[in-house]
Amino acid sequence: MKNMFTKRQLRILELIIRNSYGITGSRMAEVLSVSSRTIRSDIVVINTILKEYDFMIKSSSKKGYYIDNEKYQDMCSFIRPYLSKSLDDKNRMYAIVGRVLFDGKQYFLDLSEELDLSEQTLYKVCQKIKNYFVRQYNFNYFVIKSEYIDINCKEEEVRQLLLQLTIELIMSKRSDYLIQIELLLNDNFFDNEYQKILNIIKEKAESIYMVIEGQSLDMIALAFYMMIVRNRSQFYIENPISNKAAYSFVDLMIEELSNCDFEINENDGLLLNDFCWGIKMSCANDQINISSQCYEVLSEFCQKVADRFHVYFLESTETIQYLSTHIEYMIRRIETKYELKNPIIYEIKKMYPVSYEIAIVLSDVIYKHVKCYPNDDELSYITLYIENFLHNYNRKLRVVIVSEARPGLNYMIESWLKNNFSYRMNFYGFVTLHDLDTFIKNNHIDIVISSRRITQSMKIPYYVIEGIPNKRDFELLTSLVHRISDNNQFEEIVKELFSPEIIQYFNHNEDFNDVILQLSKQLYQNGYIENVEDFSQRVIERETLYSTVINSKIALPHPLINKEKKSGVAVGILKNPISLNNKDVKLVFLLAFNKEDDIEMCYLLDFIRRISLNKENSIELTSSNNSKQFLQKIVYLSKNIQ
Question: Where are the chain's structural domains?
């Protein structure tokens, strides 16, 4: 029999048997990734063979393809043994697991006949299955003895495993993932029933303006269907525990499905609540609710990436939005143990090694906040966002190479630079030393690379590679690239956050509270804060707890919690110093930040810290005669600070 049908024809037979109410040709074509015409042709061949055994697949415009009720059981008995023997290794695993989850203890003697494997081979296969589930899902409840495989765990743990497998199978994007779901559900899956549940959830979501994307909708529908199948098979959850508050969406779906006579209840809802918590769903036109914990993680991640790689995600609002959304749901999935799988993880790591290396930085940050590391698959999705940023948004330094008479040396230097700095540099080709000044005047260049010393005066940074590039060249050039990148970032932030309208000179003997109150009024009048009294009081309270003086001249007071209307820095330049924490302060940077701009705040704090390292900087700033001059000086510092 096995030789009478092709592998695809056996899958068609399997789909028809598993959908006793009928299945359309277009649906089978979708599952098997072929055309409807191919399905029709295969059905003709199948019926020609079945006719010899007095069986036939019928069709109608309403039901699709089906088997007559009176012939159904006989044909199932006739076909199923051969379907099992046609399974590949992966599907065989799901078939065995499905049998154990629904029928309990499975003897190798019985399975060997059905799967066409020896008992010894089956024992080894089951050991591999047990190891796989321990490794992938930390599921250590399969019991394997010399004669059988069994399972020993609570129903809640079985369902959690099924939900984890649902994520993996849907994310695999395999065209036959529904066949694997059918094997896991041990012949309790009916496509027309699943499609009905899918449509109910989709229509209900649309009625309440809930946006659920394609794969997410499939995950949710299958999750609900698995609960229904387990209940129908007389498996029930006792005393379930949910890690999260009730999801109103889940409650609505349970009510809707119950009204349609599906067996599902509140206990199922608690488990589904955890599952759905990590799936991206939002009301139309509403922003995703990003937690303060997520903003803290993102801010720390961006800061670490900037410090280590000098890559600034802040340059792209779109990238920050993508990262914040993914990290928010990643944290939820880690907490509920329903993390995503990525079927192309190895290709991503191979194709984008730099982006993956940057993504790994997130791992320690996540662990610091949730005491659990994200899996490699989750980090691979972060890798794609980073790669998109590096390719489309990352501001690369414009580099020109001073050409040599020796073409081989030119090629060697260019190749070395591209191999080591391609994600940070754009190369504008070669220029002779004679033409260098003219080229720089006509083009915006950040760095000049030369193989010999440049004697003429240079207004932009340059680096000399003497001979064959080596490790020291890499370290020194990396340091130079980082400094220039930092300065570019500082310049952007200074121009964005500082404004002449919120720079004020104090010529009398004001105290700290007076200065904060006056600067708060300036911030309020220019639309940065909601309330003068509330903001100034929060600043003063924070200063009482933790001093913000960073040297004998500079203080940067700000509230403990950032929640202002928009971000900006009010500046107070004092003729007479104020005493703060036993230090004389002449320059006050009053920071007002929106909670979404924590990353900019980190960069700004780093910039002001660098200003404070050299007392000459603060003297130069406080000697400004007016706000315009102050802005010119601080912008100059942002471009040149070491």
Answer: 2-153, 179-283, 292-392, 397-469, 495-640
549-573: b or e for each residue (b if 16 or more CB lie within 10 Å)? Answer: bbbebbbbbbbeebebeebbbbbbb
- Which pLDDT does position 1 carry in this prediction? 46
Q: Which two tokens stand for residue 549?
A: 């003086």
CATH fold for the domain made of 2-153:
Arc Repressor Mutant, subunit A (1.10.10)
Q: How far is CA 36 from CA 5, 60, 503, in A?
A: 18, 15, 71
Give residue 2's pLDDT.
47
DSSP string, 143-185: EE-SSEEEE-S-HHHHHHHHHHHHHHHHHTT-TTHHHHHHHHT
Find out whether 112 and 119 touch, Cβ atoms under 8 Å. yes
Please state which of the four CATH numbers 3.40.50.300, 2.60.120.10, 3.30.1490.20, 3.40.930.10 is assigned to the domain occupying 495-640.
3.40.930.10
The C-alpha atoms of residue 84 and residue 564 are separated, in whole angstroms, by 64
Give the CATH number of domain 292-392; options: 1.10.260.40, 1.10.220.30, 1.10.10.10, 1.10.1790.10: 1.10.1790.10
Q: The pTM is what?
A: 0.65
Cα–Cα distance for residue pair 586/289, rounded to 1 Å: 41
Per CATH, which fold does 397-469 belong to? Answer: Rossmann fold (3.40.50)
Instruction: Tell me the three state secondary structure of residue 17.
Output: helix
- Tell me the residue ranges of DSSP E strands in 432-495: 447-450, 462-464
Determine the pLDDT at residue 247: 62
Average pLDDT for consecutive 10-residue bins of the chain (642 residues)?
Answer: 72 80 86 88 90 88 86 78 69 91 92 84 93 92 94 94 92 76 86 88 87 87 95 86 66 91 89 89 70 91 85 85 92 91 87 86 93 92 90 80 78 86 82 86 87 78 86 87 81 89 89 91 92 92 83 83 88 88 87 79 82 84 89 87 76
3 state SS of 555: strand
DSSP strand E in 40-191: where? 58-60, 64-66, 106-107, 142-144, 148-151
